[in-house]
Amino acid sequence: MNRLTRKVHYWLGAIIALPLLIVVASGILLQLKKQLTWVQPPEQKPPIKALAIGPEQMLQALQQDPELKVQSWDQVERIDIRPKKGLAKLTLETGLEVQIDTSNGKILQKAVRRSDLIEALHDGSFFAGDYTKLGLFLPTAIALLLMLITGMWLWWLPLKVKRAKRKPKLPV
């Protein structure tokens, strides 16, 4: 049993090393996304917190900025409206996040948002969609669980042996 456990632990470790490295590194970046502006742009704080404009005015604000080159909604991936903060975040196909003051339609910030890309790396969908996600990253997670179990066994076994040696033997 010990020999098998060591072999399983050893070979699973070698097989899952690269996917696990990607998951751990991207997970660390995602944990720190609010602290690292390289990952996700900081939220701007508009002076007036009101929702006075609608989606059409937001699109107009994007279209009026020649740097963005936005023609239609087809170029907008997502809108995140935060009425209590007076802010709307529009993520473009290009990966740019544009923050708009919802009281007046003014663009507050344009910055690259990398957290979506990092999340796709983290879950494996970046590489080949569900094939990699379910065919490589899910088995890696299962293998990691087996590594944890075999690692606990390998850690516990020497303790068990030491305890058995320390027990006083009863005279017969």
Fold topology:
Blueprint: H1 2-31, H2 55-64, E1 76-82, E2 87-92, E3 96-101, E4 107-112, H3 115-123, H4 125-128, H5 130-166
Antiparallel strand pairs: 1-2, 2-3, 3-4
Helix pairs in contact: 1-3, 1-5
Q: Any overview of this molecule?
A:
52% of the residues lie in helices and 15% in strands. The two termini are 31 Å apart. It is built from 5 helices and 4 strands, in the order ααββββααα. It has helices at 2-31, 55-64, 115-123, 125-128, 130-166, and strands spanning 76-82, 87-92, 96-101, 107-112. By secondary structure, the protein is of the alpha+beta class. The chain folds into 2 domains: 1-38 and 124-153, no CATH class; 41-113, Nuclear Transport Factor 2, Chain: A (Roll). The protein is elongated and about 95 Å long. It has a 4-stranded antiparallel β-sheet, with helices on one face. The mean pLDDT is 91. α1 packs antiparallel against α3 and α1 packs across α5 (130-166). The longest helix is centred in the C-terminal third of the chain and has 37 residues, at 130-166.
Quick summary:
With 172 residues, the chain is an alpha+beta fold. The chain has 2 domains: 1-38 and 124-153, no CATH class; 41-113, Nuclear Transport Factor 2, Chain: A (Roll), CATH 3.10.450. 52% of the residues lie in helices and 15% in strands.
Q: Helix count?
A: 5
Q: Give me the Rg, rounded.
A: 26 Å
**H/E topology pattern:** HHEEEEHHH
For the largest beta-sheet, the strand count, sense and barrel status come to: 4 strands, antiparallel
Q: What general form does the structure show?
A: elongated
Distance, first to last CA: 31 Å
Class derived from helix and strand content? alpha+beta
CATH class of the largest domain: Alpha Beta
At the fold tier of CATH, the topology name of the largest domain is Nuclear Transport Factor 2, Chain: A
Mean pLDDT: 91
CATH architectural name of the largest domain = Roll
Contiguous low-pLDDT stretches (5 residues minimum) are none
Total domain count: 2
Strand order of the largest sheet: 1-2-3-4
Strand content: 5-15%
How much helical structure, as a percent, in the residues?
Answer: 40-55%
